[in-house]
Amino acid sequence: MKKELPLLLQVFSQTNSVEQLTEGEWDFVIRQARAGMLLARLYYVLKTSESLNLVPKVVMRHLGSAKVHAEKQQNDLLWEVRHIAKVADKLDFPVLLLKGAAYAIGGYAASEGRIFSDIDLLVPKKNIADAEKQLMLNGWLSSNKDAYDQRYYRQWMHEIPPLVHMFRGSVIDLHHNILPITTSVCPNADLFFDSAQSMDEYKNIKILSPVDLIIHSAVHLFYDGELDHGCRDLVDLDALMREVLGQKQTNVNALNTRADELGLQRAVFYAIRYASKVLNTPVTCIGGAMNAGRPNKLVLSLMDFLFMRALMPDHSSCNDLWTGLARWLLYIRSHWLRMPMHLLIPHLLRKSWGRLTGKAAH
Amino acid sequence: MFSAKSVENALMNQGLILNVGLFSFNIQSSIRSLSHNVTTLYQDYPDGFSEDRARFIDFHICVEPPNLWHKYYKGQVQFFSDGFAPFTPLPYQHAPAIIEWGMNWCVSQLINTHLIIHAAVIEKNGFAAIMPAPPGSGKSTLTASLVQEGWRLLSDELTLIRIDNYQVSPFPRPISLKNQSINVIKQRYPDVVFGIESTDTSKGTVVHIRPPKLSIELQGVECPVAWVIFPKYEEDAETELTIKSKAKSLMDVADNSFNYSRLGVIGFDVLKNIIEGADCYQFRYSQLDEAIDAFAALELPQ
C-alpha cells in the first residue's frame, strides 16, 4: 500500500530534484505549499540547496511573494519580542519563549520562512498571575470574557486564555507547562527552566535547551488535536532535528535520555518515525529509551494509517478517502489523551450546549 | 470563439483558464449567471480555452455553495482560492460579482512582486495616470468614461507597480460600476457591453462592463507613471485640478495600498520614486465632459 508522497514533500526531502519538475508539476508543488503554510519555507529550502535558479520565472514570483510576507512577519515578531523583553526585565522569575519565537531569536533554521501566529511564553506556575499582571500593564489584555472558559483554562489547562495587545493586536499564549496538567504524561516543568538557554541579545528572556525544543515540538504535534498545520509542524521538527542532532549518535542519545527524564518517549518516538518516513530526516531510532516510546504493533499500524494521512499538506491533491476521518480521529485522540473522562464529558456537553443555543464564541 | 456553451462546459469541468495581464486563473463554477457573465465580459482575452493543462496556473479559484445547507436552505455561494475561503458565503445572485472580488483578492493578498495600490490606472501616449480613491469618489465612472475617450485601461481596481523598475504592469479587467453610475455610462456610451447586475450587495447594485478590446490586446505592455490624481466627484462642483503636495500624496497612496507595509523599506522606495517622478493632483468634478477635457489637457513629462 506504499503510495508516493506529495510532490512538495519529495522536494523537501530532496528525493525529487526540482531540476526535473515540469511546469504542471510546479503547479502542484506551489499549491500544496500554500495550503500547508510552507510556501516561504520552500523558498528558503531551495535557497539553502542553491536551486532557486532552477525555478521557472512564473513560479518564482509566488515564492518571492511568500518570502516577502514571511520576512514581514519575522520583523513584526522580533518587534513584539523586544516589547516582551521589557516586561521580562521587571520580573524576578524566568521567562521562556517557545516554538516559532524561540526558533527566531535562537537563530534556528526552522524559523526561516516560517509563518508565525501567536507568541508562546512559559513561566513557572506559581508566577503566572504576576506575569499576567505585568503583561496587562503593558497592553496585553485577556480577550476571552466567558467565565466558564476562564475557569476551565486556569484550572485544567497548561496556559491561560490568550492575551491580545490592545493596540498592536499581537497575541500571547502564556503557559506554565507544555501539556495540560490533566494529561497523564504531563512533565515536570521545572526541568525546562533548569536547562534553558540564555540569549546574548536578551537579558531576561531564555529559550528551551536544544533537545527540549525538539521534544516540545514533538509533543505539540503528537498530542495536539489541531492537525491543520500538521505538515508545517513536521517540517519544523525535521529542521530542528537536522540542526540539533546533526547525525551524531551522542546527540541522539542525549535526546533519548531527556525524553526519559521528562517521560515523553512516545512523542519523541513518533517524531523520529514520521519525520524520517515523510521527510527523510537522517535520525535512526535505536537504543533503550526509544523502545520505551514504541507502542505495540497494532497501535503502531493504526497510528501509521492515521498520521501518514493527517501529516500531509492540507490540499485536495494530498487527500485520499480516509484523510478526513484520520484527522477527525486524531482530534478525538488528543482530547482523550489530554483529559480524563470525568472532566472531558461534562466539558464537551457544556460546549455542545453552548453551540446549540448559539451562546458560545467558538 | 468564446461560445456560451463551451464556457459553461469548461467552468463546470476542469475549469476555464483566463490570462489577465501577468496572471493566469483557472476558474470553476457550476453557476449559470457566473458563466454567462464570464462569456460576456471575457470575450476578448487570449487563450481562453487552452487545452494545455500541464502548465503553471497562478490562481485556482471557484465559486460554489460550500455545502448542501448553504445551497438549498440559505441559497448562498462562497469564493474559494484553491480550497481556502477568504470571504463568508453570500447570496447566490451575487456570484458574478463574487468571482471578480475573488480575483482581486488573489492578486492583492498573495502577490508582493509589485507594490499594489487600490486605484484605477489608465495610459495615454505611453504614460500612466494613477487614480487612488476611496469608494464613492466616482473613480470607476471616470475610468469607464476615459477608456472610451482614448485612454488605455491598465486596471480599474488594482494598480500594480513593479518593485524592480517602477513600471505599471497592466491588469485590465472588467470595470465595476455601482448604483447611479450604471445609467450614466449606459446613456453616454450605448455600445458598452454590460454584464449581469448583482443587486443588493454590500455596495448596492454592482455590474461589470467589458473592457475595450485594445486594452486587452496591449495587456503585456508596461509603462511609467506620469500622474497621480486623486479624483472626487461632488454634485454641482466646478471642475478643479489643483496641485497636491508630494508628501501628502505619498501618505495617501500608502493608505490606499494593500502591501505597502508588507514590502517594508522596498514599498517606501518604490512609492517615493513614483511620487517624485509624477505630477500629483487633487481633482474635483461633477461634469464628465469637463473631466475628460481636463485629463486630455494633462501635460506630458519632459
Fraction of helical residues of chain B: 25-40%
CATH architecture of chain A: 2-Layer Sandwich
Distance between the terminal alpha carbons of chain B, to the nearest Å?
A: 44 Å
Strand order of the largest sheet of chain A: 3-4-5-2-1-7-6
Please work out how many helical segments of chain A DSSP would assign. 16
Oligomer designation: heterodimer
Biggest interface, chains and residue tallies? A-B, 25 and 20 residues
pLDDT averaged over residues of chain B: 93
Task: Give me the secondary-structure category of chain A.
Answer: alpha/beta
> What value does the Rg of chain B take, in angstroms?
19 Å
Note the gap between the termini of chain A. Answer: 39 Å
Number of domains of chain B: 2
Shape descriptor of chain A: globular
CATH-level-2 architecture of the largest domain in chain B: Alpha-Beta Complex
> Describe the biggest sheet of chain B?
8 strands, mixed
Number of helices of chain B: 10
**Can you tell me the overall shape of chain B?**
globular
Number of strands of chain B: 16
The CATH class of the largest domain in chain B: Alpha Beta
Fraction in beta strands of chain B: 25-35%
List the main descriptive attributes of the protein structure presented here.
heterodimer, A: 362 residues, alpha/beta, 7-stranded mixed beta sheet, 16 helices, globular, B: 302 residues, alpha+beta, Phosphoenolpyruvate Carboxykinase, domain 3, 2 domains, 8-stranded mixed beta sheet, 10 helices, 16 strands
Walk me through what this model shows:
The complex is a heterodimer of chains A (362) and B (302). Chain A is an alpha/beta fold. Chain A has one domain (7-356): Beta Polymerase, domain 2, CATH 3.30.460. Helices cover 57% and strands 7% of the residues of chain A. Chain A has 16 helices and seven strands. A seven-stranded mixed sheet of chain A has the order 3-4-5-2-1-7-6, sandwiched between helices. In chain A, a hairpin with a 6-residue loop joins strand 6 and strand 7. In chain A, helix 3 crosses helix 4. With 302 residues, chain B is of the alpha+beta class. Chain B has helices at 4-12, 32-41, 68-74, 95-110, 139-146, 180-188, 213-217, 246-255, 265-277, 288-296, and strands at 16-20, 23-29, 59-64, 76-81, 90-91, 114-124, 127-132, 152-155, 158-162, 168-169, 175-178, 198-201, 204-209, 225-233, 240-243, 279-285. In chain B, strands 6, 7, 8, 9, 10, 14, 15 and 16 form an eight-stranded mixed sheet that branches. The longest helix of chain B is centred in the middle third of the chain and has 16 residues, at 95-110. Chain A binds chain B through residues 22-24, 26-27, 30-31, 34-35, 56, 58-59, 61-62, 64-66, 68-69, 71-72, 75, 314-316, and chain B through 53-58, 60, 82-84, 110-113, 259, 261-264, 266.
